[in-house]
Design a protein that fits this description.
The complex is a heterodimer of chains A (554) and B (271). Chain A has 15 helices and 13 strands. By secondary structure, chain A is an alpha+beta fold. Chain A has 4 domains: 36 residues, no CATH class; 64 residues, SH3 type barrels, CATH 2.30.30; 127 residues; 182 residues, MetI-like fold, CATH 1.10.3720. In chain A, the strands form 3 sheets. In chain A, strands 6, 7, 8, 9, 10 and 11 form a 6-stranded antiparallel sheet that branches. Chain A has a 5-stranded antiparallel sheet with strand order 4-3-2-1-5, with no helix packed on it. In chain A, helix 4 runs antiparallel to helix 5. In chain B, 47% of the residues are buried. The chains are: A alpha+beta (554), B alpha/beta (271). Chains A and B meet through helix 11 and helix 12 of A and helix 3, helix 4 and helix 7 of B.
């Protein structure tokens, strides 16, 4: 008896079940992370792989051509109470402009015939999503080739290249035209502003307006030849592209006229081998990283969002690190340690627990409405009532996030400062260093790993934050990047795109949620990779500094 | 300015110091860590120039506190205050308008635990001159070299001045700290148990260094080790519970102490 109870008590002392529980808890955490990352990785990376096109004939006689996206088995009880299982298939059949829907579900048992015809062609278009069908004719402007045997793919690809080159040419010409016409628009705006201005005398007003009109006419005359030249060229390119089109037969047999100018890419997945598919995959991946989005963000790339995210994180770091480090220095090195400092420290730490949307609202109210409008009134009054800084922009979003991540940086820096040996600080002071010299030469270098830890945490938090950004400057589609070739090159007032918001927007706000689903995974994967990359960069820097400033060991 | 010993001696009991010049002098010094009880009680002591003066006494007797009063390191501890005066070369170091940096430049300090900065050996020794405004690299090189020679470290490190000071051995690190203090060309060097964390051989080297330095510098050393005090110092003060019990030349204090407490301590009956 006593032996048994002794065993039990020893068992409890040793605490084996608790040790087991600790390991299980770790396993659970690890499992969840791996699961999440695995799903994102699988779904995100698989999206760009070209799927085979299936032509499916149903018993009812309908024919669909498209990609199989999902298979699902549903269980239900029929009227007799018997459990019945049925498999359903979702196929992406595209051709949204014809039928109005991209996807269709049907029961597997309804299929009467399924094949993957080698000549089935997929067309990625600028609008209305993918189109699936068979090329039956190609118009090259000077000649029309008809061939229903499907030998037109090579020629069509060549024609597509030409159409794409034309499209670029056209964009260039349009840009040049816009630049040419920009001064005209400015003058016109000035005139219309004058017309509604009642603060000056009518006579002077009329005189001034006449003068401006003269100027306008002169300018028009001056740019007339250039205008004619550019619009002529533009017309020529447009005419040429109008002549480049395909005749495509859908699975149902309808013949469709498909202008090549509207096509981004065409491919015949059923005829591609593994290398061609890999090449196609790489191309799509590159497009995803480097190109602008299309079709309300559900197609194309996310380059502006990558750019916006990284730039916002950098701006945030530039804003938060100096302020956070200086504040931590004051708290630890200068302030008299008492109740007030304890209260301040507590408040700073609690700032980290405030919901981020609150920071967003503060950013909107303080940065945008108060600071932004003041800046507008002081420096951009000629543009009013159009706001410059008085509306959301990358600067205000970055500052809002800087405020949000400030406690993280302060706390981590404080820890770094506390880790600096007292002996080193006293040694520096005993050598006649002033307090500031001591801080600069001893405290700051030694606290650098702590500061960088704070930066790492701030980056992780800042890059993933969406809610405060939505009201301080993130948009679904930004017309231009915050950095470009026009003066002053860095446009802090511009609205920007952000990967986190992109995920929300594409996944939940897009008109074609079903088609955009893989895009959500891919974007999430990219966001995670960017955060990891930024973190690795900071960790690398921290480790280098740690090696340099390892503290004395005996 | 060095105060003539005759003036001070007339008020004090330090008859044995008649031939010396004073550099440090305290007048009725009380020191409080908090308002309860003083850590130093009415301390009056005069430290002679270019000699080694040792403070001995049991733990917590206030010897380190007294030492740290001489370069105002106690200021760093919040809530402390003092009464009375500390004169260094005749100047009240606590009067307003004194520049702490200049004081500490003149009164160097070596700590119990060696505290080399996580920088190169050269950077460590040049730290003091640099923060005190010397920027010329050839000047700095010269100062670093002479300080390292004085601290008897030059031969060991001259090949690797750009390596981290943290790679040195414990004894070398402490001698580096001495060199660092010497680079400022101080008048006084305060040593707070400089060898207590070292092995006997390193301790011996430090003591040799102290012996060589005493011709040029006034050295005040706090030590736990009575043999060390007997070996290196010219004068010794025995302290207990914040008071100076006895101050005399070392030989007299150890062989023929005036007070019973001193005798009991040095014969090892307590402490």
């Amino acid at each position: 008896m006593s032996q048994a109870s002794g065993n039990i008590s020893y068992f409890r002392q040793k605490g084996d079940p608790y040790v087991l529980m600790t390991s299980l808890a770790l396993l659970l955490t690890l499992g969840m992370v791996v699961l999440m990352f695995g799903i994102i990785l699988f779904q995100g990376l698989g999206f760009f792989w070209p799927r085979d096109l299936q032509e499916i004939t149903l018993k009812q006689g309908e024919i669909y051509l498209g990609e199989i996206w999902e298979e699902e088995t549903v269980h239900f009880k029929n009227s007799q109470g018997r459990l019945i299982s049925e498999s359903e298939i979702q196929i992406k059949k595209g051709n949204r402009d014809l039928s109005g829907r991209d996807f269709i579900w049907f029961k597997k048992q309804d299929i009467s015939d399924q094949k993957s015809p080698p000549l089935a062609t997929a067309f990625e278009r600028m609008e209305y999503g993918n189109f699936y069908g068979y090329i039956t004719g190609l118009n090259l402007g000077d000649k029309f080739i008809e061939d229903s045997a499907g030998n037109l793919f090579q020629q069509s690809s060549k024609a597509l290249e030409k159409a794409m080159a034309n499209r670029e040419k056209r964009e260039d010409l349009e840009n040049q035209l816009n630049q040419l016409l920009a001064p005209l628009a400015g003058l016109q705006r000035e005139i219309s502003l004058l017309e509604i201005d009642h603060s000056i005398e009518p006579e002077a007003q009329a005189k001034k307006i006449d003068q401006l009109r003269m100027e306008l006419q002169n300018l028009e005359r001056k740019i007339e030849p250039d205008y004619q030249k550019y619009s002529g060229l533009l017309q020529k390119v447009a005419d040429e592209n109008e002549q480049l089109f395909l005749l495509v037969q859908t699975a149902e047999g309808a013949e469709v006229h498909l202008p090549l100018e509207k096509v981004v890419r065409l491919y015949q997945p059923n005829r591609m081998n593994i290398f061609q598919k890999t090449g196609f995959y790489a191309g799509k991946l590159w497009e995803f990283i480097a190109a602008d989005p299309r079709e309300s963000n559900t197609e194309g790339g996310v380059f502006p969002a990558i750019f916006g995210t990284v730039m916002m994180v950098l701006l945030m770091s530039i804003a938060v690190v100096p302020v956070g480090v200086l504040a931590a220095l004051y708290l630890n090195e200068y302030a008299h340690q008492g109740t007030i400092i304890r209260l301040i420290r507590l408040s700073v730490n609690n700032l980290a627990g405030v919901p981020s949307i609150v920071f967003g609202i503060f950013g909107l109210g303080f940065f945008i409405y108060i600071m932004g409008s003041s800046i507008d009134q002081l420096f951009f009054s000629n543009k009013l009532p159009e706001p410059t800084f008085g509306t959301g922009g990358i600067l205000w979003a970055s500052l809002t996030l800087a405020l949000l991540t400030l406690p993280v940086v302060v706390v981590a820096t404080e820890e770094g400062i506390l880790a600096v040996p007292r002996a080193n600080k006293e040694g520096a002071l005993a050598l006649g260093a002033t307090r500031w010299q001591m801080i600069r030469k001893i405290v700051l270098p030694n606290a650098m790993p702590g500061i960088l830890t704070g930066l790492i945490l701030a980056i992780s938090r800042g890059a993933g934050e969406v809610a405060p950004l939505m009201i301080t400057g993130v948009v679904k589609l930004a017309p231009s990047l915050p950095i470009d070739a026009s003066f002053p090159f860095l446009h802090l007032d511009r609205k920007f795109m952000h990967l986190g918001f992109h995920i929300y927007d594409v996944g939940f706000q897009s008109p074609n949620v079903e088609a955009a689903k893989p895009m959500v995974y891919t974007t999430a994967l990219l966001l995670i990779l960017i955060v990891i990359f930024l973190n690795l960069l900071a960790i690398y820097m921290r480790n280098r500094l740690r090696k340099k400033y390892k503290t004395a060991v005996f | 300015m060095v105060v003539n010993i005759q003036q001070a001696v007339s008020q004090k009991t330090a008859g044995f110091l008649t031939d010396e010049k004073i550099v440090i002098e305290t007048l009725n010094l009380f020191f409080y860590y908090s308002s309860d009880s003083p850590a130093l009680k009415d301390v009056n002591i005069i430290i002679p120039q270019k000699k080694v003066t040792a403070f001995i006494g049991p733990s917590g007797c206030g010897k380190s506190t007294l030492l740290r009063c001489f370069n105002r390191m106690n200021d760093l501890i919040p809530g402390t205050y003092h009464e009375g005066k500390v004169l260094i070369e005749g100047e009240d170091i606590n009067k307003t308008g004194i520049r702490l940096e200049r004081l500490r430049n003149k009164v160097g300090m070596v700590f119990q635990k060696s505290n080399p900065f996580p920088m190169s050996i050269w950077e460590n020794v040049a730290f003091g001159p640099k923060v005190n405004g010397i920027t010329d690299n050839t000047d700095l090189d010269e100062m670093v070299k002479s300080a390292l020679i004085q601290a008897d470290l030059w031969r060991e490190v001259k090949e690797r001045l750009d390596q981290s000071a943290l790679d040195l051995s414990g004894g070398q690190q402490q001698r580096l700290c001495i060199a660092r203090a010497l680079a400022n060309k101080p008048h006084i060097i305060l040593m707070d148990e400089p060898a207590s964390a070292l092995d006997p051989i390193s301790t011996g080297k430090i003591e040799e260094t102290i012996d060589e330095l005493k011709n040029q510098y006034t050295i005040v050393i706090v030590t736990h080790n009575m043999q060390q005090a007997a070996r290196v110092s010219d004068y010794t003060a025995f302290m207990m519970t914040g008071e100076i019990i006895e101050f005399n030349d070392t030989r007299t204090l150890f062989t023929n102490p005036d007070k019973k407490l001193t005798e009991e301590y040095i014969t090892g009956r307590f402490g």
